[in-house]
């Protein structure tokens, strides 16, 4: 696979899950939030939100911030 194909694959995987799509759409404008706040808004547990957040930076949609 080429670098472009790998990047595209990472981006598609990030968008493939409804929670990660929700995260990207809610943080795309540069908003910063605590994991617990995002979890509450999304209606999921904090550990599950953290797991999804850890998968987002590799897609390039979100910056790499401390999780």
Could you explain the architecture of this structure?
- The structure is a single chain.
- With 67 residues, the protein is mainly α.
- It has one domain.
- The protein contains 4 helices and no strands.
- α3 crosses α4.
- The protein is elongated and about 40 Å long.
- The termini are far apart.
- The relative contact order is 0.20.
- The mean pLDDT is 84.
- InterPro entries: WH-like_DNA-bd_sf, WH_DNA-bd_sf.
- It comes from Daeguia caeni.
- This is ArsR/SmtB family transcription factor.
Let me know the largest β-sheet. Answer: none
Q: What do the pLDDT scores average to?
A: 84
Characterize the quaternary organization of these chains: single chain
Order of SSEs, N→C? HHHH
Shape: elongated
| Unreliable stretches covering 5 or more consecutive residues | none
Count of all domains: 1
Write the layout of secondary structure elements.
Elements: H1 3-15, H2 18-27, H3 35-42, H4 46-55
Concise description?
The protein has 67 residues and is an all-alpha fold. Helices cover 61% and strands 0% of the residues.
Features:
ArsR/SmtB family transcription factor, elongated, 67 residues, single chain, WH_DNA-bd_sf, mainly alpha, WH-like_DNA-bd_sf
